[in-house]
Write a structure and sequence with these properties.
- It is a single chain.
- The chain has 472 residues and is of the alpha/beta class.
- The chain has helices at 47-55, 74-77, 80-85, 96-122, 137-145, 231-247, 261-274, 288-299, 306-314, 330-335, 357-364, 383-388, 419-426, 443-455; strands at 12-15, 27-31, 34-38, 66-68, 92-94, 147-149, 156-159, 162-168, 176-184, 187-193, 216-220, 252-255, 283-286, 324-327, 344-347, 371-374, 393-396, 399-402, 406-409, 435-439, 461-462, 469-471.
- The strands form four sheets. A seven-stranded mixed beta sheet has the order 6-5-4-3-2-1-22.
- Strand 9 and strand 10 (187-193) form a beta hairpin.
- Helix 4 (96-122) runs antiparallel to helix 5 and helix 4 packs antiparallel against helix 8 (288-299).
- Bound molecules: zinc ion.
- The site of zinc ion has 6 residues, from loops.
Length: 472
């Protein structure tokens, strides 16, 4: 960064996170003598490595003058309070819905940081230094004051010579690609950062806009080389599973992330019931965070696609309490255990590693009438993965339980573009984008996409290492 300030004619981007991995998105743009971060995400991985990577920035936080945030997922925004804690004073630009959703996400992240530190301090040997949380609620509050909302498709001057436009990415409520125009001696250069790119046809959200043209395009590559199942077939299958389970008198337990996936599942179930293709059984969303996130969804209809707006006009209860029961208190959550008869329970966490879903799984997995519906990626080593593998017995909350419930895996609900979507979006830029840099993908995924892009006529495609610098 600062090393570039003297010979400032050519802007550069340094890849500091989500380089050959899918976590900790963070890149530094140096242009017009300014240092601007693109995303400031939390690195998620083994505890010791995560702590080190998140705690220490590879640059002095005070030298960063602004942040441009693509969306509110933890791996894109949740190291911002630490950046602020360490002296970053500048504005954080994002869309209005991202600002609202980031409030929910960062509040929850601070709680986890504080609980984690307390847990480690409890296990601390005598003489070992006390573990400080990465940040706490006060840091989040200060961070949120630095947020500056910019509507979609509205160019915003970040600094003289740096202009940014947020464009629909169709991945999460408020998610955006960022198109940058940078003044250089004798002209202008363009940089495009896709953030996480969504898929056409996802419910609630608008489809991704065309990728803004750039001399340098920094694209995500999460599902390079992979093709998802179609969204509408997945919705059908979801309906079938719920119907069959209800017919045999069972409950459907759906572990889902509180933000994004929960609202997608609620939308599909609501639509199926409205169309009379699913009996009107009760749906419980048991997660305080999902309740707050759903409130943010309700407050930002400007992000909805046409069919969601029509559905809302006909039935304002889309996310509403008429059919869907939102549960905040622990008391009401526990009361669900004794509830007889078929129902759907959606609860976090999505990989069954923590949260209230553990209690629902524990109480329901030994009844063969019930179904555990897995609707997202389950990482190696998680309880969710052991359920997907249909282990005959699993450990859950300190007890061994026999897995008798049916386990169904639905793979079509991903909110990331697959190889076909990425190629469809990027190919129009062949010959326009002089350089493409692929981030936010495991090496084999990113390499698969890189090969396809070269085949489509892109001359300079690289999967950068952490710390690698590209000149625009
Ligand atoms: Zn994301």
């Amino acid at each position: 960064m600062s090393r570039n300030r003297k010979q400032q004619s050519d802007p550069t981007v340094t890849f500091w996170g989500a380089a050959k991995s899918v976590t900790g998105s963070m890149h530094c743009l140096d242009a017009s003598g300014r240092s601007v971060l693109l995303d400031c995400g939390l690195f998620q991985g083994p505890r010791a490595e995560s702590r080190r990577r998140n705690q220490d920035f590879p640059f002095p936080p005070r030298q960063i003058e602004a942040v441009l945030l693509s969306h509110a997922h933890i791996d894109h925004c949740a190291n911002l309070p630490n950046l602020v804690r360490q002296g970053f004073k500048g504005p954080i630009y994002c869309t209005p819905a991202t600002r609202a959703l980031a409030g929910v996400m960062l509040g929850d992240a601070a709680k986890i940081q504080v609980e984690d530190a307390a847990y480690l301090n409890g296990k601390r040997e005598k003489g070992e230094p006390k573990v400080e949380p990465l940040y706490d609620g006060r840091d989040v509050y200060r961070t949120l004051l630095q947020f500056k909302a910019v509507p979609y498709d509205t160019p915003e001057v970040i600094f003289k010579g740096i202009e940014a436009t947020f464009v629909e990415a169709g991945h999460l409520l408020g998610s955006a690609m960022i198109g940058l125009k940078l003044d250089v001696a004798g002209g202008q250069r363009r940089v495009t950062f896709t953030g996480d790119l969504g898929r056409p046809g996802l419910p609630i959200l608008r489809d991704p806009a065309p990728i803004p043209p750039g001399d340098l395009v920094i694209s995500e590559s999460t599902y390079g080389g992979h093709v998802h199942e179609p969204v509408d077939e997945t919705a059908e299958r979801l309906g079938e599973v719920v119907r069959q389970t209800a017919e045999r008198g069972g409950k459907v337990i759906i572990p889902a992330f509180a933000v994004g996936r929960t609202q997608t599942v609620v939308y599909f179930l609501h639509e199926l019931m409205r169309a009379g293709r699913l009996p009107g059984l009760p749906i419980y969303v048991d997660s305080p965070m999902a309740v707050r996130a759903t409130e943010v969804f309700r407050s930002h209809p400007e992000c909805f696609d046409e069919s969601t707006l029509q559905l809302l006009a006909a039935d304002p209860e889309l996310f509403g309490p008429e059919r869907i029961h939102y549960i905040e208190s622990v008391h009401d959550s526990i009361a669900l255990n004794g509830r007889p008869g078929p129902c759907v329970i959606i609860s976090a966490s999505g990989m069954c590693e923590s949260g209230r879903v553990l209690h629902h799984l524990k109480h329901n997995m030994e009844d063969p009438r019930n179904t555990i519906l897995i609707a997202g990626y389950q990482a190696e080593g998680t309880l969710g993965r052991r359920l997907v593998e249909r282990r005959p017995e699993v450990r859950i909350l300190g007890q061994t339980r026999v897995l008798k419930a049916e386990v169904v895996v639905l793979n079509g609900l991903s909110s990331h573009a697959d190889q076909q979507d990425l190629m469809r979006s990027l190919t129009p830029l062949a010959g326009v984008a002089k350089k493409v840099r692929l981030v936010h993908g495991e090496p084999d995924r990113a390499t698969a996409l890189a090969d396809a892009l070269r085949g489509a006529g892109f001359a300079d495609v690289v999967v950068p290492d952490r710390g690698e610098i590209v000149t625009v």
